[in-house]
Amino acid sequence: MVKHFIKLLRPEQWIKNLFIFLPAFFSGTIDHYSNTINLSIAFAAFCMLTSCVYILNDFFDIENDKLHPEKKHRPLTSGKIRPLVAFVGMAIIN
């Protein structure tokens, strides 16, 4: 079940959240310790927030996704993760 919950979070999409570091990189302040710590915390929080959005989206699209050849294998759509478990997980990570 843990494997399916991690898949539900879509960590492969988190790479896009690295854009949060770009302003500090281009301003030359990425090497300041406080900036790096704050940006890392913001990155982690943003990853958790986007994962919650993915879970909500999957929940609201369950019926449509059942008809899709690839999306029907997602954890919520396929029934590998129950909606209640997904919402409890969302509450914990958020």
Describe the protein in words.
Helix 3 runs antiparallel to helix 6. The chain has helices at 2-9, 22-27, 33-60, 62-65, 75-78, 83-93. The protein has one domain (2-93). Helix content is 65%, strand content 0%. With 94 residues, it is an all-alpha fold. The longest helix is centred in the middle third of the chain and has 28 residues, at 33-60. The mean pLDDT is 93.
Task: Give the gist of this structure.
Helices cover 65% and strands 0% of the residues.
> What is the helix/strand order?
HHHHHH
How large is the count of helical segments?
6
Helix content: 55-70%
Mean pLDDT: 93
- Cα distance spanning the termini: 19 Å
Strand proportion: under 5%
Biggest sheet: strands, sense, closure? Answer: none
Radius of gyration from CA coordinates: 16 Å
* Number of structurally distinct domains: 1
Structural class: mainly alpha
Counting DSSP E segments of at least 2 residues, the number of strands comes to 0
Which segments are poorly predicted (pLDDT under 50) over 5 or more consecutive residues? Answer: none
What is the overall shape?
elongated
Give the helix/strand layout.
Elements: H1 2-9, H2 22-27, H3 33-60, H4 62-65, H5 75-78, H6 83-93
Helix pairs in contact: 3-6
Q: What are the main properties of this structure?
A:
94 residues, mainly alpha, 6 helices, 65% helix
